[in-house]
Amino acid sequence: AQSVTQLGSHVSVSEGALVLLRCNYSSSVPPYLFWYVQYPNQGLQLLLKYTTGATLVKGINGFEAEFKKSETSFHLTKPSAHMSDAAEYFCAVTLNTGGFKTIFGAGTRLFVKA
Amino acid sequence: ETGVTQSPTHLIKTRGQQVTLRCSSQSGHNTVSWYQQALGQGPQFIFQYYREEENGRGNFPPRFSGLQFPNYSSELNVNALELDDSALYLCASSLAETGLEGYTFGSGTRLTVV
Predict the structure, then answer these.
(1) Which residues of A touch B44 (CB under 8 A)?
(2) Inter-chain touch A105–B42, beta carbons under 8 Å
(3) Residue B6 and residue B74: Cα distance in Å, rounded?
(4) Spatial distance between the Cα atoms of B42 and B58, rounded to a whole number of angstroms
(5) What confidence tens digit (pLDDT) does each residue in B54-74 have?
(6) What percent of chain A has pLDDT over 70?
(7) Which candidate in B105, B107, B109, B110 is best for mutational testing of the A interface (most A CBs within 10 A)?
(8) E strand segments, chain B
(9) Using the beta-carbon criterion (under 8 Å), do B97 and A100 form an inter-chain contact?
């Protein structure tokens, strides 16, 4: 069965510290991977995506993620956290299994301490 | 360009009733997806429409149905509402039927079933 697992429902970092949000997927077909961010009372905003090509992808707001097929992972990183990065982050996978289906992880709430 | 707009923003219904939620896609987008997001969880894929045809469906019962219109706006209909249907319903649109360009999300409709 296809699934997306985000390790850690809550992550807390200090301002200026490294941000690492973990995502692992399970898929029997080639996955297309995404990270979205959700601010309170808003819809989701696309941060970055991996479909084909280079496995290290850069997104908005200084975020990047690396697709590692051998580890079935797509972890999200940012070298230096900013207070405005505090939000909920969702990893997602789109699969073509005779129809297109997108599966989201449960989300990780990022807290940034001053 | 306008984004994805959803209406209404909030709705309260009684168990057993029917509800229709509406979504206007971002200009130029011909694909629309609907998601259910329960409190504290990630969005769950309901279904996706491309050029008025359903081209993907998640694990939701048939009482969840949808329509996409020639102008690519969309409706989500839920019959025989249950208490567990209380959630944030998100609409998202995309340029391509695969959704691989990523989705633009609306701010959602908060449905409460009492």
Answers:
(1) 104
(2) yes
(3) 10
(4) 14
(5) 988 889 999 999 999 998 899
(6) 99
(7) B105
(8) 5-7, 10-13, 19-24, 31-37, 44-50, 53-57, 64-68, 74-78, 87-94, 104-105, 109-113
(9) yes
> Count of CB contacts below 8 A, A vs B?
64
Burial of B11 per CB tally in 10 Å (0-12, 13-18, 19+):
middle
Burial of B74 (0-12, 13-18, 19+ CB in 10 A): buried
Question: In one letter, which amino acid is B7?
Answer: S
pLDDT per residue as tens digits for the range B6-58: 999 999 999 999 999 999 998 888 899 999 999 888 999 999 999 899 988 88
Among the partner-chain residues B42, B45, B90, the one whose CB lies closest to the CB of A43 is B90
Distances (CA, A) of A17 to A80, A83, A114: 5, 11, 11
Residues facing residue B7 across a β-bridge: B22
Could you say which residues from 46 to 75 on chain A have a Cβ atom under 8 Å away from some Cβ of chain B? Answer: 46, 49, 51
Higher pLDDT, B6 or B102: B6
**How close, in Å, is residue A29 to chain B by CA atoms?**
14
CB A70 within 8 A of CB B7: no
**pLDDT tens digits for range B73-89:** 999 999 999 999 999 99
Contact B4 A94 (CB under 8 A): no
B98 touches chain A (CB under 8 A): yes
